């Protein structure tokens, strides 16, 4: 989407230098927009480890580029395949919980399975990385196309009056390559000229809503208002929210959605006020092995995410401790919203009710079902 | 309650100097425990305006002391009554929305209505301020006595296993003079030796949970864990919360409770998981004039509360900007939890169901009903 009127993806190959890829250094957002050059698998590992790139889809795509960059650097080396396999393992180890990461690395490594001339490897992998990026963009674009009619319908019902959308965390283009998941329908509706406005949850403790979602909406020109996570219920009680759209980290075959911690509370408020609540994600986020959503393991993260805060002080950007070092803190990464609170699932392959039959039909129809 | 094993109130007269009152400078918490001396109405006005003292009950009591201190300073002055009346107006203007403030000032000014010898005024008002403090403590102590059996019953049912209580914002002794409202039953249960633990909501954007509730519980020796506001729903889904107790800014005659923004979301989660949800407050918080809770005006506060954050950096305590200056922000002060989500109301005059009949009975029985 756009920053200052110019279109960006979150990762892109340099137009001239074949062994150079650019990403946005997301650690610097929203205070500074800086591009970070990547020229090797090591550069990519650093970018992922340091969270210069984040968001499961973007991490996967960047790791795939890590393999391609390694192939370009090692072009002509007779042991290139062994080097790439070693880099693949190192790349996969950067964020072991991100499913997309292993998937993307395995996907690109599949290119050199079997008989491939060593001289062709670099070109093949570079093209594969470009393809993986483009496919990721297509998935998000389709998610947008699938979700767009929901917003159009509300706009029609309101006679063109402003549609108010609430979202949690960042499921926008910065987390993917372009468009995003939850925000894809929002960008499409905005670009079609539909009058809309987004309530952006701050999303403590890492503040991805305040730092990333507000940044990307504001820069694309989508009207938004940043709110503390405590606010959504009040807004919904007072008719100030027309629809809630969030992303998804993992969905069960029954339509339960694991997403950033706090999503469940917004789903409860939406349900209590008869406001439609949607989750948007690619069908690859369905985990068909989990029956009971309470069995989804919930990551506990370091307390420093709660106790420390980055900001701009008298001497530039700095990190301050906002609560005492010895304060007892718990920091759970996500929660699960049960299907009964969800109006529908917006996927790249179509929209469906959060019910096992509907989900199985969607997956069968698209030949994704694992059996 | 206790700090480092020593008992404190949030405001107390000096033991030797008659014209000196001490408060805790709550702006410095939790990083530093500093006592602030008050010797005049001006000192009190500064303490309230700068938020060195906060919390509706404490603000009221401190303002009453402002009148008493003014009387001591102006002892012997023939125009003392006029001076006190002028100070009363200035004190009331510090935080115009706090109902307790006007009530406490009017209450202490009532002492000099009618025939009072000028020479007696200082002594009378000093004693009245002491009485108002003691009454406030008694109200909170009774709230604790009324709520204690709820916690005892859960402990019994769990065979003495740890009782997990969730609270939002700060409704503890720092907001009152001692004990608090929501935390009064918690302190009493802890002091009786009941094994318990409190989940403390951070309470964005002013972080009163993280800065004040965590501080006061920790210093009294009550086990607690600080959590981002997004966390409570997940904890409740997983059986990690036995009871929710929050404070109250204003309650309707139908039992709806206006409290710090975000309370409604926790009430929804409690209801969805069959967890008892209580609000604790003095009966003076009933606003018998409001029928429909959606009519309660909700204060919108400055966006700087969301965008700025205090913390400890390399050079000591500092304030940093955590989001861009031009970010669009909304900051609502509280929300209203409808009675249907509330299990019961814990008041200083007894416990009651959040229903009009029960509340009217409670108020009639105590001769508080306004008719």
Describe the 3D structure.
- The structure is a homodimer of 371-residue chains.
- Chain A is an alpha/beta fold and 371 residues long.
- The first copy, chain A, has 2 domains: 2-135, translation initiation factor eif-2b, domain 1 (Four Helix Bundle (Hemerythrin (Met), subunit A), Up-down Bundle), CATH 1.20.120; 148-365, Translation initiation factor eif-2b, domain 2 (Rossmann fold, 3-Layer(aba) Sandwich).
- The first copy, chain A, is 37% helix and 19% strand.
- The first copy, chain A, has helices at 41-49, 56-73, 80-92, 99-109, 121-157, 184-191, 208-220, 232-237, 263-272, 304-307, 356-365, and strands spanning 2-3, 6-7, 11-13, 21-24, 35-38, 163-167, 196-201, 224-227, 243-246, 250-252, 257-260, 277-281, 286-287, 308-313, 316-321, 334-337, 344-347, 350-352.
- In chain A, strands 8-7-6-9-12-17-18 form a 7-stranded mixed β-sheet, sandwiched between helices. In chain A, strands 13-10-11-16 form a 4-stranded mixed β-sheet, with helices on one face.
- In chain A, strand 1 and strand 2 (6-7) form a beta hairpin.
- The longest helix of chain A is centred in the middle third of the chain and has 37 residues, at 121-157.
- The radius of gyration of chain A is 21 Å and the shape is globular.
- At the A-B interface, helix 7, strand 8, helix 8, helix 9 and strand 14 of A face helix 7, strand 8, helix 8, helix 9 and strand 14 of B.
């Amino acid at each position: 989407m756009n920053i200052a009127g110019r279109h960006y993806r979150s990762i892109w190959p340099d137009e001239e230098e074949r062994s150079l890829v650019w990403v946005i250094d997301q650690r610097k957002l929203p205070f500074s927009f800086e591009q970070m050059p990547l020229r090797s698998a090591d550069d990519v590992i650093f970018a992922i480890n340091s969270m210069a790139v984040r968001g499961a889809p973007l991490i996967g795509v960047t790791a795939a580029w890590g393999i391609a960059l390694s192939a370009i650097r090692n072009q002509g080396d007779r042991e290139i395949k062994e080097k790439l396999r070693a880099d693949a393992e190192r790349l996969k180890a950067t964020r072991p919980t991100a499913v997309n990461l292993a998937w993307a690395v395995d996907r690109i490594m599949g290119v050199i399975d079997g008989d491939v001339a060593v001289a062709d490897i670099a070109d093949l992998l570079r093209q594969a990385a470009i393809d993986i990026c483009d496919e990721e963009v297509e998935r998000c674009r389709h998610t947008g196309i699938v979700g767009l009619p929901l917003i159009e319908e509300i706009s029609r019902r309101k006679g063109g009056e402003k549609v108010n959308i609430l979202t949690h965390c960042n499921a926008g283009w910065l987390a993917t390559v372009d468009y995003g998941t939850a925000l894809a329908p929002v960008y499409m509706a905005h670009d079609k000229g539909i009058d809309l406005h987004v309530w952006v949850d701050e999303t403590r403790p890492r503040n991805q809503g305040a730092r990333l979602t507000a940044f990307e909406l504001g820069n694309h020109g989508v009207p938004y208002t940043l709110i503390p996570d405590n606010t959504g219920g009040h807004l919904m009680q007072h008719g100030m929210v027309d629809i809630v759209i969030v992303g998804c980290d993992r969905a069960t075959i029954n339509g339960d959605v694991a997403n950033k911690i706090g999503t469940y509370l917004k789903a409860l408020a939406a349900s209590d006020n008869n406001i439609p609540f949607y989750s948007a994600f690619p069908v690859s986020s369905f985990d068909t092995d989990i029956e009971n959503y309470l069995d989804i393991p919930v990551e506990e993260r370091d307390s420093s995410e709660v106790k420390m805060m980055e900001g701009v002080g008298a001497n530039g950007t700095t990190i301050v401790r906002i609560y005492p070092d010895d304060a007892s803190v718990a920091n759970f990464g996500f929660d699960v919203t049960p299907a009964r609170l969800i109006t529908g699932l917006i996927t790249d392959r179509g929209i469906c009710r959060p019910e096992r039959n509907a989900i199985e039909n969607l997956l069968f129809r698209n030949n994704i079902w694992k059996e």
